[in-house]
Amino acid sequence: MSRAVLYEEVRKLLQAGAQLVDVLPRERYREQHLPGAINVPLKELDATTTAQLDRSKPVVAYCFDAL
Amino acid sequence: MGFQEVYDYVPSKVDWLARGLPMEGEKADKSVVGDILRQDVVTASLQTRMADVRERVESSPYGFALVVTEGGTLLGRLRKASLQGDPDARAEDVMEPGPSTLRPDLTLDDVSERLRTWDLKTAVVTDPEGRLIGLVRRADME
What we know:
The complex is a heterodimer. Chain A has 2 helices and 4 strands; from the N terminus they run E-H-E-H-E-E. Chain A has a domain at 19-62: Oxidized Rhodanese, domain 1 (3-Layer(aba) Sandwich), CATH 3.40.250. Chain A starts with a strand and ends in a 5-residue tail after the last strand. Chain A has a 3-stranded parallel sheet, covered by helices on one side. In chain A, 22% of the residues lie in helices and 19% in strands. Chain A has helices at 7-15, 26-31; strands at 3-5, 19-22, 38-39, 59-62. Chain B has one domain: CBS-domain (Roll). In chain B, 25% of the residues lie in helices and 22% in strands. Chain B contains 5 helices and 8 strands. The radius of gyration of chain B is 18 Å and the shape is globular. Chain B starts with 5 loop residues before the first strand and ends in a 5-residue tail after the last strand. The mean pLDDT of chain B is 90. Strand 1 (3-5) of chain A pairs parallel with strand 1 of chain B, so a sheet runs across the interface.
């Protein structure tokens, strides 16, 4: 279960070491992504594709916009 | 999947871009609309009288005002002709509803070309939920 957050909280989470995950398709990620973000396309989200993430640290996910 | 804390950055990438924050990637160096946003456009509510907004527009860099809700959602545009008409008219009665808008992640190359094609000097920029973020001027891109 995820919790919705806005920019200010994202900033604090990242400063505290949270992992940033871009769930957009690979091509969109390759073109442009937030600094330090790891790409895990939403359609491929499973235990294998998220194996590179540290389960003990917070994860902040984002896509393109709120729609 | 075993994660202890998961957060959803709801306004997402568009919000980040609109704040002019750095990006990474093959196209990260391309300037986007969010990089040159201006916040100096006059805004009015639906109930604002033309007499109350006219003077502010005259001292602004633009010949129009934008009508927004309390939450900042863009509703319409007040053109010069409306502003110079009946001073008691309310914005809701004379505004041009639903002006065309751009998103902040468009590249300046794309936007500059569009503004040239349409012979426009400015473009209104909103977020994906229709909230006014600012304006871009063609002069700032050339």
